[in-house]
Amino acid sequence: MEPNPDPEHHLRIDHGMPQAIEIDPRRGRFPCCIVWAPLPVISWLVPFIGHMGICREDGIILDFAGPNFVCVDNFTFGAVARYIQISKEMCCICPHLAAYRSEEAYRRDETSRDLLTWDDALRKGTQEFQHRSYNLFTCNCHSFVANNLNRLAFQSGGWNVVNVAALIFLKGQWVNKASMVRSYLPFVVVFSLGLTIGGWTFITFLAFFTFLLVGWFLLGTYCFRNLILL
To answer: Where are the beta strands (DSSP E) in 39-102?
Structure first.
């Protein structure tokens, strides 16, 4: 069988030392990043909730997009709006083969290799979620990102759907001003129309909807630990 002619779409691990790749939003390349984009309808009402993915070392985006399906290099809800690059120094992963003096030294270092490379961790996470059912409330794109961050032992692990959302919201960097407008303009329009037409009734509905949505994930994450899957 001939090898895949397009290495960008191949999930295998390159045994050579990876070259440093710059973040390139135009090509959709965000090496070792968590990425975020607004969701239709939901983000119009609660703008800090959106769709997430995590990127390979070559910048290719992986995101859990549906039942038994991890999307590769085609971010499900459009262009990335926010991103945060993860330092591999804060992860517990082993170096590539090229970092060793010989293949024999690499084979002897079994303990370190059990810690995985960045791409190997993402490959294992992808394989797992390709056999998972998608559910917005119990197993979603945030679960996929948290699962991979725990595999990488980023900041010693302990990631869940709540703190990964907080991470991108508090520390995420906007791609450009247009991405900020694309994320918040629908909310401003919906809120303005709702306030004009519905007044306090709309505000009450929006507060109740936000409380239920956020409360579900907080309870499912910290009180009923088996409710939301990672």
So the answer is: 50-55, 61-66, 69-72, 82-85
**How many C-beta neighbours within 10 Å does residue 87 have?**
9
Helices 161-171/200-222 angle, 10° precision: 120
Whole-angstrom Cα distance, residue 182 to residue 204?
25
Indicate the SS3 state at residue 156: helix
- What's the CA gap between 198 and 213, in Å, rounded? 21
CA-to-CA dists, residue 54 to 22, 78, 152, 172, 185, angstroms: 16, 15, 12, 13, 25
Percent over 70 (pLDDT), the chain: 81
What are 26-68's pLDDT values in tens digits? 999 999 999 999 999 999 999 999 999 999 999 999 999 999 9
Sole residue written with tokens 């590769």: 72
Give the number of other CB atoms < 10 A from CB of residue 177. 8
Neighbour-count burial of 71, counting CB atoms closer than 10 A to its CB (0-12 exposed, 13-18 middle, 19+ buried): middle
- The order of strands in the sheet holding 50-55 is 69-72, 61-66, 50-55, 33-38, 82-85, 173-174
- What stretches of the chain show up as alpha helix (H) in DSSP? 42-45, 103-108, 110-113, 118-129, 141-151, 161-171, 177-198, 200-222
Asked if 182 and 38 count as a contact pair (C-beta separation under 8 A), the reply is: yes
pLDDT tens profile 5-36: 444 444 433 444 445 689 999 999 999 999 99
**What are the residue ranges spanned by the domains of the chain?**
7-222
C-alpha span between 160 and 158 (Å, rounded): 7
